[in-house]
Design brief:
It is a single chain. By secondary structure, this protein is α/β, with parallel strands linked by helices. The protein has 8 helices and 8 strands, in the order ααββαβαβββαβαβαα. The strands form 2 sheets. A 6-stranded mixed beta sheet has the order 5-4-3-6-7-8, sandwiched between helices. It has a two-stranded antiparallel sheet with strand order 1-2. β6, α5 and β7 form a beta-alpha-beta unit. The chain is globular, with a radius of gyration of 17 Å. The N and C termini lie far apart (48 Å).
Length: 220
């Protein structure tokens, strides 16, 4: 049986999140700097649908293999994966279980309360692939990379399920990191419009917001 068009383009993810209530429209403050966003996406909703959660791990694995198989690979070889708490840790765990790649994670925002900077076993000099559920401006990925590198690990790449397209990729690139995303938010919005899950006015409002934020961060 042939795959539906959205299945072939990873838009199954957009459909699953919609069905799970993981996409909302309104007026939201996201992270530390994205304010008055007309769209909110919560990839963590996938953990409540095991088949979709497992599929996400499988797609992440296939994406990594494909990127590393290029003549000019976009992803470097790695020995560990690091999940960005909290959402990224769920997907990094699923990826680790699916691929048998060891998992660690940084303690973000640790105030010196005796916790280790990094949870899990590692050896200095190992290369780590950072995994997060969603990227907006890239702040959490950069903070994770800083902690990992301070402990002697190497970070070259990050993998996210959804890129909101607001300049996070460009920001990581300026710091020397490559971002690979499974799905772009604008592609999700186009899918919702084509399947009549949202109207043209709301679609235009969301896309204009994303493009304006991307322009701001890329020109910063």
């Amino acid at each position: 049986m042939p795959k539906r068009p959205e299945e072939a383009e990873n838009l199954w993810l957009a459909r699953a999140l919609w069905e799970l209530g993981g996409v909302r429209f309104g007026d939201f403050t996201i992270g530390r700097s994205t304010v008055h966003s007309p769209v909110y996406v919560q990839p963590r909703r996938l953990i409540s649908r095991p088949r979709a959660f497992k599929r996400a791990a499988r797609v992440m694995t296939k994406t990594v293999v494909a990127e590393q198989a290029r003549l000019r690979p976009r992803l470097h070889p790695f020995q560990l994966v690091a999940g960005v708490p909290l959402g990224g840790l769920h997907f990094a765990t699923a990826f680790s279980l699916y691929t048998n790649v060891p998992l660690i994670y940084p303690n973000l925002g640790d105030a010196g309360n005796g916790r280790h900077a990094i949870e899990g076993h590692f050896e200095p000099g190992q290369t780590v692939l950072i995994i997060d559920d969603l990227i907006t401006t890239g702040g959490s990925v950069l903070e994770s990379a800083r902690i990992l590198e301070q402990e002697g690990l190497q970070v070259k790449d990050a993998l996210v399920l959804i890129d909101r397209g607001e300049g996070g990729a460009a920001r990581l690139r300026r710091h020397g990191y490559t971002l690979t995303a499974i799905l772009q938010l604008e592609a999700m919005l186009n899918y919702y419009l084509s399947t009549r899950r949202m109207d043209q006015g709301l679609h235009r409002k969301c896309c204009e917001y994303i493009r304006q934020k991307r322009k701001e961060y890329e020109n910063a």
